[in-house]
Task: structure prediction
Amino acid sequence: MSVPVSTQKIIKNTLGEYKFGFKTRNKAVFKTAQGGLTAAMVKAISNRKKEPKWMLDYRLKALEIFEKKPMPAWGGDLSGIDFKKIHYYLQPQDRPKNNWEDVPKDIKDTFEKLGIPEAERKFLAGTGAQFESEVIYHSLQKELTKKGVVFESTDIALQKYPEIFRQYFGKVIPAHDNKFAALNSAVWSGGSFIYVPKGVHIELPLQAYFRINAENMGQFERTLIIADEGSSVHYVEGCLPAGELVSNGHKFTNIEAVKTSDLIVTDDGKHHKVKALMTRPYKGTMLKIIPVSRENSFRLTTEHPVLCIQRKINWLPEVSTKKLMATKPEYIPAGKLKKGDFIVYTTPTKTEDNEIFTEDLLKILGLYLAEGSISFNKSLKLNALAFSFGKKESEKNMAEDLILTIKKLGHKASITKSKGLYYTVISYSKNLIDLCLTHCDKGAHHKKLSQTIMELPVEKQKILLKNYLKGDGSVYIRKDYPSKMIRAGTASKTLAFQLQEIIARMGIYANISLPEASQDVIGNRIITRQDQYIVEYTENKKFNEVRRKDNNYFVPIKEIKSENYNGFVFNLEVKETNSYLVKGFAVHNCTAPTYSTNSLHSAVVEIIVKKGARVQYTTIQNWSHNVYNLVTKRAFAYRDAEMFWLDCNLGSKLTMKYPAIFLMEPGARGEVQSLAFANKNQHQDAGAKIIHNAPNTTSKIVAKSISKGSGRSSYRGLLKVTKGARNIKSHVSCDALLLDGASRSDTYPTMKIEESEVAIAHEATVSKIGEEQLFYLMSRGLTEEEAASAIVNGFAKPIIKQLPMEYALELNRLLELEMTGSVG
Result:
């Protein structure tokens, strides 16, 4: 089982600079007073929650332990914590909700401000949201509930599943483990309870959001995860396979070829810069969404969000335009789309006129697209521009009209007639040839329109299209209704999609098809016809299943296919909108922002990984600089089970966190990968603990830290092999990067080995950014700050690449913010 649970916590910021340091006006239902923690206060919390007596007894015993245990004398400076000023419990609403619409508006607005819109919550298999001490919202997909998966707030789980709850609660981390575990055990509230039954596999993430809003508030959530035998959760992020076409507005680029800083069109029809291209290996289901216009079909993973209007149950097959226009499109995971839903085709809005494109020049370029070619005349040693026409009188008239138009623009041209009575117009004008090459390219399969033409006002584009259709188009006019069907064929895929975009700007959605290649027998020869993309549309169409609103077209899905896929997939991070167009249709990159802050955060996370199961717990946290983050995390892994902690920490005043894994039975595997960034006046005291309690177990610890300004990072780790645990393999790696002379890094590794049949390796490095590195990157066009950021990103890459894509995007963003002003 792989369970990435991201705990996100925000508090009112007393420093005034933290981006999410806003405060929501919310009237609490219940709130404990300041003045210190007492038995009466613990009883009041337990009574408020209507807990069984055994839990109250557990809390009171934990309070006694908390009062007796001294503050830790090692690690960071904890002298700034004043337990008498803390509110230990605050209840923001009567009871948790299962419907987001039922959550009070002021609380709901808070989560919206954090960049967690309802559309993003829909990408998750299960979602929890905690405000102050209580979970205010919890949901789980129905199909997972049917499989027996439990994803509840910890408080609700105590009431609904008392037997399994009591069996595991406090068994991995008992109250007497440390002072802050005792504090949590006495006043815990909220958090998540997850149970995955035997053999159940979950393919979407379970995620929790946390927010502290009140001043001097403490948050003490308790998380308990149980992965039963052979269960698994696969955290899959949305992506597209190579070859899918992304719109730049004037052209279409394979997604794998998109570069950072490229301008692409997003769901608002405007151009935005690409911040990052993400890629990863993927093995699983790949969907093919087939809309009206089969060649606009695109492939993507099941959870990748697509902008759409889902067909409602009471809608007729021919849904009224009025109903459709009244419905707001939203991002829905591709796996939830159905035949008949409407996906959104968006046209670019950028328009820029250019005076050189007169009606005469556009006529020439339109005819060149259809009938023109450029070749080299060996005898004259000149490039020749040729237009080929048929032998009909109308074709002859077109050729003669073209001659006049070319001469009108000041170029020379001539007309010839072949033995087969075909007409050809030829010009050797270098200027005219250059214009055709620049704005239309050459070769039947490679012709395409320039950015300048694709951004011309639509009235000018109509002139070009009209003349293109004279050569490669055909028109059918209905007698019973004044509509006109127009078809055009081209061997160029790019040109076909560009024509569709131009026609869409004219107010009509065109269909693109690719008939199968065919063979004809002419005499004794077999002729294979080239692929031709057919672009067709109807003017004044009586009935239209595609509807238009502004620069968007609502296009019905005709079919959805699925296939098994094993290869690399790609995704884009785009500034501002985090969306992009695939063959014209809007998709989202499904990033989920992760920010975490509070004044005292003392959580406990307990995980049980049973035989053959796998759990992955992924966290990115970025706290305000007035936060003490003191967390106890521990997992028990049994026979052939695997536990993977992936932990990234930025911000906070002090972090003390050491995710632990106890390998309890043979075949168990444990891994901890962590990254810490300590900026000015911060101390990141983090690390890992792995205990080999059984033979034939393996472990790995990778810890990376970055220190800047007066920031201090410390690795504090324990690797222990108990007596009888033979044939152990373990590797510990600690790397630190110092950005300047004021920063500091320390390493405190502890190894306790009680067996001889072990293979254990430990390595540690400390490095600084060197002037030679900066000079090398700056000589290639980077500023000093950009060069330093590139070095930091390269250092952190081994951790970042292990993250699910949306977390990798977020961590890159946070590192970029931390590096601002790092030099100079």
